[in-house]
Write a structure and sequence with these properties.
about 400 residues; mainly alpha; two-stranded antiparallel sheet; 19 helices; about 70% helix
Length: about 400
């Protein structure tokens, strides 16, 4: 027998259906991290048309003074922080319930990989059609690279999730030391550039291990957040000012060094500062999440978080390709070299959002899978519960 709907409409029903033990601030941090990445890509990714092809460009290459945009919108460290926190708590709950590792891992990774099949299927068809119709190979390579670039994140995140039983007690200083030594070898001693790819795992393991420490209760004091924020900011500023690291925290086409691909020491210390800020925001976020309207938006974002992440570049490219029917449009197809382009791109953001909304409507159900009987969508959002609530069931 189902419970009567709570008064106040859809938002109130989501609020009423949410378990009392859920830490809504964690869900808010996850949603903010995903939306930050999406907005960042939409603002700094340009597809410029020339006489024969579409090529990727970035306003950060033409306008270096826009680097602070990347400081605000490169939020992957926060996502890995939350991921480490939730996975550690989830694994502890699974062990308490005597749930097998395989069953736990399957539950943890299903939401990650279900949406991938739809993305790969669509872009396989699009790629074949483009090649059969004689599209320029540069255009095809540019589009496919942008569409599939989010998959690297998914693979790294899944690998760290799988290793959670081994990482749950790892001190974040150990992977940070690995990143430091790799960069010393690369930039100080002339080691091969490929060595930097070690940091793809080690770099994101730092915030993930911080999340595990948070789950163990080691970061509850405000002092921990302050030290991470101030220390990470100071070290990052020093690395950029005196060690030659780029100011942009995202990759810039044509730049000799990228802070993100693979992660550098500057990107990791910057991530520490972001994690510190996230920890300090827990209290204000918990208070904000008491408002049904705000919580409903966060809950619905989390419900399709991976779909949003995997399809946001497709939404940008679909808008760009459709816009070509009207000619070269400012902010879509023109060189990102000035204030006119920036203003035009900001104007396109609502269009990207509408197209992405269509993608979520079409493919969001793939991520959510078959709904459980008598369970509200708000409850099925990735969980972030208190220890007592976590012990009561395995975190889905």
């Amino acid at each position: 027998m189902t419970e009567p709907a709570a008064p106040g409409g859809f938002r109130a029903r989501i609020d009423a259906a949410t378990p009392a033990g859920r830490d809504r601030a964690v869900d808010a941090l996850r949603a903010a991290a995903i939306l930050g990445v999406v907005l960042g890509h939409w603002l700094v990714t340009a597809l410029v048309t020339d006489s024969t092809a579409l090529r990727a460009a970035s306003p950060l290459g033409e306008l270096p003074r826009l680097a602070p945009v990347s400081w605000v919108l490169q939020t992957l460290a926060v996502f890995f922080l939350v991921g480490g926190y939730v996975a550690t708590r989830s694994h502890a709950a699974a062990r308490a319930r005597r749930t097998s590792y395989g069953r736990w891992l399957t539950a943890r990774t299903a939401r990650l990989f279900r949406p991938v099949g739809a993305v790969l299927a669509l872009w396989t068809v699009v790629t074949v059609l483009l090649l059969l119709t004689g599209a320029d190979p540069v255009t095809v390579r540019t589009l496919v690279k942008l569409a599939l670039s989010p998959l690297w994140f998914l693979l790294v995140f899944a690998a760290l999730t799988a290793a959670t039983p081994l990482l749950a007690r790892l001190h974040p200083l150990w992977p940070l030391a690995v990143v430091l030594h790799v960069d010393l070898l690369r930039f100080g001693l002339g080691a091969p550039a490929w060595l930097g790819w070690i940091n793809l795992a080690a770099g994101w393991l730092v915030p993930y291990a911080l999340g595990a420490a948070w789950a163990r209760g080691e970061l509850e004091r405000r002092r921990a957040g302050v030290l991470l924020l101030l220390g990470g900011t100071a070290v990052t500023a020093a690395l950029v000012a005196w060690a030659g690291y780029p100011a942009s925290m995202v990759g810039v086409p044509g730049a000799p060094v990228s802070n993100l691909n693979p992660p550098t020491l500057a990107a990791v210390t910057f991530g520490l500062a972001q994690c510190g800020a996230a920890l300090l925001l827990r209290g204000p976020l918990r208070r904000a999440m008491r408002r049904p309207t705000v919580w409903a938006g966060v809950a619905l974002t989390n419900l399709s978080a991976m779909t949003v992440f995997l399809w946001h570049q497709t939404a940008l490219m679909a808008t760009t390709a459709t816009g070509l029917l009207a000619g070269r449009l400012p902010g879509l197809h023109t060189r990102p070299d000035g204030a006119v382009w920036i203003a035009a791109r900001v104007g396109w953001l609502p269009v990207f959002a509408v197209v992405l909304g269509g993608c979520v409507a079409a493919f969001g159900a793939v991520e959510r899978g078959r709904p459980r009987r008598h369970r509200s969508p708000a409850v099925r959002v990735s969980t972030a519960e208190t220890p007592r609530a976590a012990r009561s069931r395995v975190d889905a």
